[in-house]
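Lab manual, section 2.4: Encoding a predicted structure.

Procedure: take the sequence of the chain (102 residues), apply the prediction step described in section 2.3, and record the output as structure tokens. A sample record is shown.
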Amino acid sequence: MGEQSTLTRADLCEAVHEEVGLSRQECSTMVERTLELIVEALQRGETVKLSGFGVFQVRDKRARMGRNPKTGEPAAINPRRVISFRASQIMKSKVHDAGVGA
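Recorded output:
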């Protein structure tokens, strides 16, 4: 594959500005607020489903024994909350189709 690039918040704001025509400040506020709403829902333990995009979900992982990769010594891993993302079939299909013939 070719060179990788990263889509940033600024890129999202610029894309919204170009598509919608609101001021850059209004677009920035809209993008930031959207991301804040997603984070707030996840903090409350809610599932965030974006149709055609995917599902963000908070999962509780239990405590378990792991192993220090450097020393091989057993190490306790504390319980924690993690975020998982599952892409929708639509997104998977679009990403797959974009990679075919690339």
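Check your result against the sample. The first strand starts at residue 48 and ends at 50.
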